[in-house]
Automatic annotation (TrEMBL):
It comes from Linderina pennispora. PANTHER family: XYLOGLUCAN ENDOTRANSGLUCOSYLASE/HYDROLASE PROTEIN 8-RELATED (PTHR31062). This is GH16 domain-containing protein. GO terms for molecular function: hydrolase activity, hydrolyzing O-glycosyl compounds. Residues 1-22 form the signal peptide.
Length: 340
């Protein structure tokens, strides 16, 4: 499940600006609406995060970037950038680190997502990397070495659209280091009962494995090291009472995340294992060697390139949003709080 520590970050950002914008009142200077606040940078304007109906006008939210296919090997330092520094040019940065502080790094050709102890919150503060491109259907494969070296540590590789809550998951919990769990969500319904565990027979934190999601309009197939482990057919998600399918179908982003489930709410902690072992200098890491995406639908042929003026405006807001130091603390609380 996607972790959202965003409100806390936004609340802090909001404290730095003189006028607090209420819902649906974003103006031309802070046109993009997200989770109750308005601003002008990528953290607010990115497709899927930004809510068009509540933004300044119907074109204020940035359009979907789209993606035909790409392989990211994490061999370039700009393969990931903080979303607060992101210009909007998806061709420059394949992934966006969405939390502050930014606990992502590229080392030795791998993306590293770290989780460190936040003493004030008595919980770990992790990291999330969202793709700067969207996909709609298609196949994604990631080579991942998990952080399942201790109870409570959760690693994830998902495809998600924040607006609809459509989501397709691989998740690993420290409680069960040999296991990967698959799940999906649709229409913002949080239903944990669809989770299916798979035992790799080896420790997922010991070596890289290929985790693949083949997502079509009719089915989702999850595979590990080329072997299909689960198939979900859209037809089987039909609910006659509501005449709807609970099948993810929104244009979405792939995301990698590490977070502290063991220090969270009871249900989450029971699922992830607890307590998460922490010393002041403990660092847990999840590694991604490569991420390969091929989208069935390239929603826009042009990458979304923002103008220089918009880019510098984004940078200016970044300073405000990150100046307080408070988001880390607040976000850590939020990070531990949600269910899985
Ligand atoms: C819509 O808002 C954007 C800023 O978000 C602005 O650049 C654009 O000119 C506006 N369009 C109209 C038709 O007002
Ligand atoms: C993905 O799944 C679809 C439907 O099952 C199948 O036709 C297609 O060949 C699969 N693609 C890959 C690359 O495995």
């Amino acid at each position: 499940m996607k972790i959202t520590a965003f409100s806390a970050v936004l609340a802090s950002a909001l404290a730095m600006v003189p006028a607090a914008f209420a819902e649906s009142t974003c103006d031309q200077f802070s046109p993009c609406y997200r989770e109750g606040y308005c601003n002008v940078n990528a953290a607010f304007c990115l497709y899927g995060l930004c809510v068009p109906s509540k933004s300044y006008n119907s074109t204020s939210c940035w359009p979907a970037e789209g993606c035909a296919s790409q392989t990211v090997n994490f061999d370039k330092s700009n393969d990931i950038i903080s979303i607060y520094k992101y210009s909007g040019d998806a061709s420059q940065n394949a992934f966006l680190s969405i939390f502050d502080p930014d606990n992502t790094a590229i080392n030795n050709g791998n993306l590293e997502l770290s989780m460190k102890y936040n003493a004030a919150q008595k919980a770990g503060f992790g990291a999330t990397a969202d793709a700067s491109h969207t996909i709609k259907y298609g196949k994604v494969t990631a080579r991942v070495k998990t952080a399942s070296i201790a109870k409570g540590v959760v690693s994830s590789f998902i495809i998600r659209d924040d607006n609809t809550g459509d989501e397709i998951d691989f998740e690993w919990v420290g409680l069960s280091p040999n296991q990967v769990q698959t799940n999906y969500y649709a229409n913002n319904v949080i239903d944990y009962t669809k989770m299916v565990p798979y035992d790799l027979g080896v420790d997922t934190s010991a070596a890289y494995h290929d985790y693949e999601i083949n997502w079509t309009a009719d089915s989702i197939v999850w595979s590990v090291d080329g072997k299909p482990i689960r198939t979900l057919k859209k037809a089987d998600t039909y609910n006659a009472a509501t005449n709807t399918y609970s099948f993810p179908s929104s244009e979405a982003r792939i995301a990698f995340s590490i977070w502290d489930g063991g220090s969270g709410a009871q249900g989450t902690a029971d699922w992830a294992g607890h307590p998460t072992p922490w010393n002041a200098d403990t660092v847990y890491k999840m590694y991604v060697d490569s991420a390969e995406e091929s989208s069935a639908v390239a929603s826009s042929s042009e990458l979304n390139s923002k103008s220089a003026a918009e880019s510098s405006a984004a940078d200016a807001s970044t300073g405000a949003a990150t100046a307080t130091g408070a988001p880390a603390t607040d976000a850590a609380t939020a990070t531990g709080a949600p269910g899985h």
